[in-house]
Amino acid sequence: MANMIRLVILQAVISFSFLPGSYSASNLIETTCKQTPFFDLCVSSLQSDPRSSSADVAGLAHIAADNVNVKATATLQQIKGLLEGATDPELQKALQGCVDKYNAIIQADIPVAIEAIVKGNPKFAVSSATDAANEAQSCEKGFANPPSSPISDSNKDVNQLSLVLQSIASLLL
Amino acid sequence: MEPSTSHDPERNSAFYAPLPDHPSSGRAPATRSRPLKGFVVILASVVFLLSLVALIINQRQEPLPTPNRAPSASPTSKPASFSEAEPRGVAEGVSAKSNPSLLNEVSFNWTNAMFSWQRSAYHFQPQKNWMNDPDGPLYHKGWYHLFYQYNPDSAIWGNITWGHAVSRDLIHWLYLPLAMVPDRWYDINGVWTGSATLLPDGQIVMLYTGSTNESVQVQNLAYPANLSDPLLLDWLKYPGNPVIFAPAGIETDEFRDPTTAWLGPDGTWRITIGSRFNDTIGTSLVYQTTNFTDYELLDGVLHAVPGTGMWECVDFYPVAINGSVGLDTSSLGPGIKHVLKASLDDTKVDHYALGTYDPATDKWTPDNPEEDVGIGLKVDYGRYYASKTFFDQVKQRRILWGWINETDTETADLKKGWASLQTIPRSVLYDNKTGTHLLQWPVEEVESLRLNSTVFEEVLVEAGSIVPLDIGAATQLDILAVFEIESLESNTTDEVSDCGDGAIDRSTFGPFGILVIADDSLSELTPVFFRPVNTSDGSLKTYFCADETRSSKATDVFKQVYGGKVPVLDDENYNMRVLVDHSIVESFAQGGRTVISSRIYPTEAIYGAARLFLFNNATGVNVKATLKIWEMNSAFIRPFPFEET
């Protein structure tokens, strides 16, 4: 009898702990991510940031911008590393083009997007996110195949994260 | 979220699941505790059920009612992992949310020569860095003044200050030092857009939006330090700033861009500031003031239109019916209509509507509610935003400025070191002939740039043909063209009903027009054209379009088909005026009833390789074109020569 009560209480505690605070936070993330082209990526990339549990849509947009920045920064490092070891002039040309594009993402697109989100002028965040997506895609297309792109996955990630940012920022318009 | 009411086997089976540790007969319960034990069992079961229900609710993903406001970034499911957004390609404008379509080609290699060519010869732009909205335009002591949102540090938006330039004639601009910088807590995050009011006693008041240290949008007052300085070099900020905070019910990041003030019949001033209600209802609030430091929010709003979203850069001004001059912003009375214009944040398009202002109630009503602000006419059907007018008291004109930003990549802007242009200022008049449109026309002073001219009379352009026009240099042009059509035979196949996919889409009566910034081999070209279309009642409806889709071989620039309807009256031929200035093309149809601004970034059709052609890609008409084409001089826009005074 007592054990049954204990079991029920334990069950209740476990179940109710999914309500209400974390429930509504993940609900906002889900609602928001449904309005992006990459739901799973959006959800996982937002949830991996602890700020997301208490963020409003603008906060989620800010996190999305930070996510692009992190991935783009890592990709730029990757590109520079490849450039050091590259001997094929076509490959070097493509990689150098990518350096320029990723510099644009990191030094221009992301700072402008974050400033726009914070200051309540979201249209600049939308256009910057659009540009970041295009820069990543343009970098990928710079590989004439041959040589094929050594950074396809990274370019894809930056492109998709940028489109997620673009969609979330559009919700602020 | 509704609790699940469907039959759930998990819940039911749990209900019947055997419970562990079923009390055996080890302890004989006292008779009195039996009802208590039953109560506890029921309570526990209820708690157990509710907690399971909570768990189930949480795990379900229910369809959400929120409409999907994502931009047109729907991936075309290519096997490769990249998402390519289909550009909207809609004739009647473009969304800033649309991605450029990056084709499956190797990315383009820009050269410095290509970038240098892109700078305009006679459109206003700073020497370098980023510009956006035009601000506080005015005329004072012999000089036209233009202020503009400016980043002094970089070719991207940020660190926003007020740039400043002056001109005798709205064309030959001289750069001055920055007028205002973000140096107060109330504008430290941006000295944003604002407007000037010239008072009858000669004072100038400038109202502008500041983004505060907490990113709150407030309205601030500034005025010239020295009114006797024709150059208005120095500006002072009112010590009591901010003068207006967002009222209750308005978000602090949705309250910006105060207008020029107008005088009411009661002798007090009014301004209007754009905002929105409930996310989707665009609106403009009205404030009353006598001294420009103290403001009272009036009840109600000037106007509101559902579904239009945030209204930025609201502009509100009178135009004279049957008039040939512009009107002072405070003009009232019979024979006057008021224009209400808003820049829609959602779509990055400037819209206007004609209507009637009631100064007793401070309300404006559109002439045609179906063409209300934001859902009807556009100020410009191309790449154009944040426009603002002012009254030129010397020449009695209403002058319109508009911001044209880049449509290339950020990488390119950083390499070029600059971004954005302003249009050539346009004079604005009510179109007496239609009664439904404004007419915009480049200010006459632009004609001072005209060098030699070439005339072509009644050139026949047969259906499906192109005629080269031999004019010499073709990157800086002022083109006036008139077209007459002669029907060949009637066509009963599918008609393209608007700008379509550009000049490549053939229909019976169009497209016909000119190809600007084209090279000899037509590997790059920008058609500006008319497309008259049959309507079901037998009349012709005409579209005026600018087609950027083949403007450049580069794959990383935005190449859109822009355009809109243009009324063509029975006694009119098809006429267009096109200003070509390197990477900007401004196209005016029927005297300025429909205007399109375009940005193009050719790679071959530059410098001496640029050409001009006539074309007619219609299937059912021949076209006769008469043109007068001027080569345009540079405006030599440069820093003010202080040392020469």
UniProtKB/TrEMBL annotation, chain A:
The cross-references to InterPro entries, in alphabetical order and at most eight, read:
C/VIF1, Invertase/methylesterase_inhib, Pectinesterase_inhib_dom
**Listed SUPFAM superfamilies:** Plant invertase/pectin methylesterase inhibitor
What keywords are annotated for this sequence in UniProt?
A: Disulfide bond, Signal
Domain (Pectinesterase inhibitor) spans 24-168
Q: Name one GO molecular function term.
A: enzyme inhibitor activity
What Pfam families does this protein's entry cite? PMEI
Signal peptide interval: 1-24
Q: Which family does it belong to?
A: Belongs to the PMEI family.
Q: What is this protein called?
A: Cell wall / vacuolar inhibitor of fructosidase 1-like
Automatic annotation (TrEMBL), chain B:
Q: Where is the Glycosyl hydrolase family 32 C-terminal domain?
A: 445-631
Chain ranges of the Glycosyl hydrolase family 32 N-terminal domain? 123-442
Xref: CDD domains: GH32_Fruct1-like
Which top-rank group of organisms is this from? Eukaryota
Q: Where is the composition biased (Basic and acidic residues)?
A: 1-11
Q: Which subcellular locations apply to this protein?
A: Vacuole lumen
Show the Pfam families listed in the entry: Glyco_hydro_32C, Glyco_hydro_32N, INV_N
Q: What is its main location?
A: other
Name this protein carries in UniProt: beta-fructofuranosidase
Q: What organism is this sequence from?
A: Herrania umbratica
What taxonomic lineage is listed for the species of origin?
Answer: Eukaryota, Viridiplantae, Streptophyta, Embryophyta, Tracheophyta
